[in-house]
Write a structure and sequence with these properties.
This protein is 86% helix and 0% strand. It is mainly alpha-helical.
Length: 148
């Protein structure tokens, strides 16, 4: 699977988890805990693997350098929000508000990546490189998820 298909697949999985979490209320503590654990694991492995493989291949090219740097910063913001959400009681009324901020951040990141970065990346990477990076990212993500 090439990197673009793999990332779209990851984006769909994360979006689905965010949507399910967004639908929970303050009283759904167990459901929130379960879904949040999945989201945190998925988002963390995705971000780290993406930075080590896809972003690393693109940060050297003039066409993609700026948007890759922005993507890294968006990963940092998402990571900080995940840490804060993890530390908060899942029935805290602020938890839902903070989750909304995370969802907005991640949704923006996904849209920018799929609409702008992919387009620019296709000018930098040929099909064989995209395929190879996809394989490397899959392996990296598997290794990260195995550590959990």
């Amino acid at each position: 699977m090439d990197i673009y298909a793999l990332l779209k697949q990851d984006h769909e999985k994360v979006t689905e988890l965010l949507d399910k979490l967004d639908e929970t209320g303050d009283g759904a503590v167990k459901t929130r805990e379960k879904l949040f654990a999945q989201l945190k694991q998925e988002l963390t492995a995705h971000s780290e693997a993406e930075e080590k493989t896809f972003y690393d291949a693109l940060k050297k090219a003039e066409e993609t350098r700026e948007i890759v740097l922005e993507g890294v910063e968006e990963h940092h913001v998402a990571s900080a929000l995940l840490t804060e959400l993890d530390a908060m009681p899942k029935d805290d009324e602020r938890w839902g508000a903070k989750l909304s901020v995370l969802k907005e951040n991640v949704t923006h990141h996904i849209e920018e990546e799929e609409k702008e970065l992919f387009k620019k990346a296709r000018k930098v990477l040929d099909a064989a490189q995209a395929e190879e990076i996809g394989k490397r990212m899959e392996a990296e993500k598997r290794a990260l998820l195995a550590q959990v």
